[in-house]
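BUG-338 | component: ligand-complex export | severity: low

The export step for phenylalanine jobs runs without errors, but we want the raw record kept on the ticket for reference. Input record follows.
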Amino acid sequence: MDQIKKYIDEAREFTAQNPAELEEFRIKFLSKKGILNDLFARFKEVPNEQKKEFGQVVNELKNIVNEKVATLKESFENIGEIHSKLDLTRPGEIHELGARHPINIVKNRIIDIFSRIGFTLSDGPEIEDDWHNFTALNLPEHHPARDMQDTFFIEKGPDVVLRTHTSSVQIRYMEENKPPMRILSPGRVYRNEAISSRSHMMFHQIEGLYIDKDVSFADLRQTLSYFTEALFGKSKIRLRPSYFPFTEPSAEVDVYWGLETETDYRMTKGTGWLEIMGCGMVDPNVLKNVNIDPEEYTGFAFGMGIERIALLLYQIGDIRMYTENDIRFLEQFKSELF
Ligand code: PHE
């Protein structure tokens, strides 16, 4: 009896690493000369009063062994099936990485270029009040220059607008900080312009502001030349007199793109020059509006549209491509690190 109980324990605990081990187990218990046949053969030797108990225990052992053999056999068959379908020589599946959007790439590159010369980031709300978007920037109510920017007014009241430029961030920053200051503010801006291939209701600008003692127009020019060299590899720029209410004097910045290829010719309409941004010396009225003494401090500001810069940098044919999310367009920016 003790020996049979040991067999029961053995059978219960048995596991096989492979079909050969299982076969060994099967032969040991179930073959003609196996343990079970031997036990059944000895049944007649068992005294009558023990026959019942003996029979039960041997049957229990038989059931356990049979079940064990059946389940292990099935699991080996399953593994065999998986293995026959599994091709370990097949190359693994590649996990595709997405690409950054060109607007983000260009924004980050511009930030990187200006951060090397001490500019830090600052931001403000896209829903702006009249003061920060217009009045403090030397655009009082009824000023004709307000028409330059087709403003979206928010229902809440005439005072609340979607900011038409990132210049509003200048005001917010100057209100809360003391010079010297060097900031860069990227962000979305909104204008109610007719939709064409060249304009959007929402686009991205990046604004720079530098205020300190003795900041000159020459500093502005030098800074912008450093920037165009770093971004386009072209340092030749020209400043054309222009008008912005918040800067005086004001200028449009053109970069000399060159006329080496047909594309250059087409992009620059045969002039070699491309307009890339607006800039100027911060108007003394603006400084007064934020309690900075214009006798003590001067500064410059510049602002550019990121869509336009990206258009030039990557020779993108149509501004609508930015928002169509065509994978074939977006994929082309995969190699860009920024
Ligand atoms: N805010 C101007 C625009 O949106 C750009 C600009 C910024 C011009 C700073 C001069 C100085 O057109």
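Assignee comment: Attached the raw record above. The mean pLDDT is 91.
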